[in-house]
Amino acid sequence: MAKISLIVNGNPVTGNVDPRTLLVQFLRENLRLTGTHVGCDTSQCGACVVHLDGKAVKSCTTLAVMADGHEVKTIEGLAADGAPLHPMQEAFREHHGLQCGFCTPGMIMTAIDIVHRKGHEVDDHTIREELEGNLCRCTGYQNIVASIAAGAKAMAKSDLA
Amino acid sequence: MYEFKYHRPGTVRQAANLLVKNEDAKVIAGGHTLIPVMKQRLASPPHLVDLSHIEGLNTIEMKGRSLVIGATARHAEVATSAIVGEAIPALADLASQIGDPAVRHKGTIGGSLANNDPTADYPAAVLALGATIVTNKRRLKAEEYFQGLFTTALEADEIITKVMFPLPKKAAYIKFRNQASRYALVGVFVARRPSDVRVAVTGAGSDGVFRIEAFEEALKKRFSSKVLEGIEVPAEGLNSDIHGSAEYRAHLIGVLTRRALDAANAKE
């Protein structure tokens, strides 16, 4: 077993894990943060995307021990319980950027990463290119792209990063 | 995944010692090849030595006339580095086409080269540009480094520390992606170097990355897609699978080489 300590959604957490534990397992099973999903488990689909030190990564292809000493943000960390949603979450709601919702946490974490790297004015083509590693089987992407474009703009006026 | 012990050394020397001490230990940095392979139980190293916390191992800098990229530089770092963009834009462009954005945040140049997947992108750049692979023990020329499918000149306790790229006069990389895996079905890197021209192909060869000497000879006289007319690429020795036949890949090599030459010439 290996002792790890990291910051998850702003809070210090510790764990005693088998080194085989994936970051996504640690988040879901140890911390009960089940917003992060396991879709394909082969780093293709992006349902497991979280931010590691501020950058979008696939938590199904990251060992929990590799995140020791680092900072992780999950979908649960975007807005406090009961508080207004993060502008990107709100944009997905407003623009109907989801149907079954399984891919949504990964989509939103990727979307916020896109805004961090590409700014608040992102054209549709860029968004589609950037969504390379996130699969959705319901929406046909049209409304996801619209949500991200709107969310990116809304983030410019928000305090939530 | 089978059980293993995780180590996080602070220096390359410590990492090398761990490899000497623990037989069958494997080096990990981004983990974007090794972890999937371990999940499938195709690899079961009893020890993992994580290089990603060794300070300075991801440095990107110019040293004399060479671009030097540290082994743990992530694909995203190479793709967006102003130094790479200035020195060898074709290399930044190549890095920006690997996997997807989240994969590029983790995967490293050293990891890609140490694994030497026959469909990986970096081997084409290293071979075409005539780069030198620097390890904790020695310097290896690209020609001696790549030794076939998933096989390199690296010894069990040898660690890539950096890659030195001499600057080409012109270069470009064109990739025909497998839509599902994002790996190269065929990728061609062309480089006009001060002394010669090199054309390196990834994705197509059943023995990994290789050069096309017939193209190189013709291009030495004139660096233009026009001189390739009439030169056929033999399908012999190329991969044939559900994604494309050897003949299809041979055809793609010709098409992509011409596109790469036009792209390299257009950059002036």
From TrEMBL, chain A:
Coiled-coil features, chain-numbered ranges: none
SUPFAM superfamilies tied to this protein: 2Fe-2S ferredoxin-like, CO dehydrogenase ISP C-domain like
Annotated InterPro entries: 2Fe-2S-bd, 2Fe-2S-bd_dom_sf, 2Fe-2S_ferredoxin-like_sf, 2Fe-2S_ferredoxin-type, Aldehyde_Oxdr_Iron-Sulfur, Beta-grasp_dom_sf
Superkingdom of the source species: Bacteria
Record's keyword terms, sorted: 2Fe-2S, Iron, Iron-sulfur, Metal-binding, Oxidoreductase
Domain 2Fe-2S ferredoxin-type: 2-78
GO molecular function, one term: metal ion binding
Hydrolase is among the record's keywords: no
Name of the protein this chain belongs to: (2Fe-2S)-binding protein
Native species: Bradyrhizobium cytisi
Lineage: Bacteria, Pseudomonadati, Pseudomonadota, Alphaproteobacteria, Hyphomicrobiales
Automatic annotation (TrEMBL), chain B:
Gene3D superfamilies (alphabetical): 3.30.465.10, CO dehydrogenase flavoprotein, C-terminal domain (3.30.390.50), Uridine Diphospho-n-acetylenolpyruvylglucosamine Reductase, domain 2 (3.30.43.10)
Example of a GO MF term: oxidoreductase activity
Classification via InterPro entries: CO_DH_flav_C (IPR005107), CO_DH_flav_C_dom_sf (IPR036683), Diverse_Substr_Oxidored (IPR051312), FAD-bd_PCMH (IPR016166), FAD-bd_PCMH-like_sf (IPR036318), FAD-bd_PCMH_sub1 (IPR016167), FAD-bd_PCMH_sub2 (IPR016169), Mopterin_DH_FAD-bd (IPR002346)
FAD-binding PCMH-type domain span: 1-170
PROSITE patterns associated with the record: FAD_PCMH
SUPFAM superfamilies, sorted: CO dehydrogenase flavoprotein C-terminal domain-like (SSF55447), FAD-binding/transporter-associated domain-like (SSF56176)
Residue stretches in coiled coil: none
Sorted UniProt keywords: FAD, Flavoprotein, Oxidoreductase
PANTHER family: XANTHINE DEHYDROGENASE SUBUNIT C-RELATED
Protein name: Xanthine dehydrogenase family protein subunit M
Protein source organism: Bradyrhizobium cytisi
